[in-house]
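Support request, please re-run this one:
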Amino acid sequence: MANLDSIFHGLADPTRRAVIARLAKGPAPVSELAAPHDMALPSFLKHLKVLETGGWIASEKTGRTRTCRLRPETVQLAEGWLGQQRNIWNARLDRLDTFLTDTERKG
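Re-run finished. Output below.
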């Protein structure tokens, strides 16, 4: 499993986010994934490499066709980390709200 740095690096580019969004609908061949993007295939393949290194996708080759699929365990790992951060910030904001309410009452 990839670490969080490489997982979130995969999300740092709009092309890669678009690939992830497309693969959320189901597996797709590289040619289909590359079609909407205005770049040379070698450049696009670099994006797929980042996603594969980050654990977002897995690919397999059948004949001459390479098909990519989303790895749901990476989505779950990213969601888990984001959920923890959300909980931390909600608790901080709740404490701030309590502090401001108490300060207003004393004022």
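The mean pLDDT is 94. Strands lie at 28-29, 57-62, 65-70.
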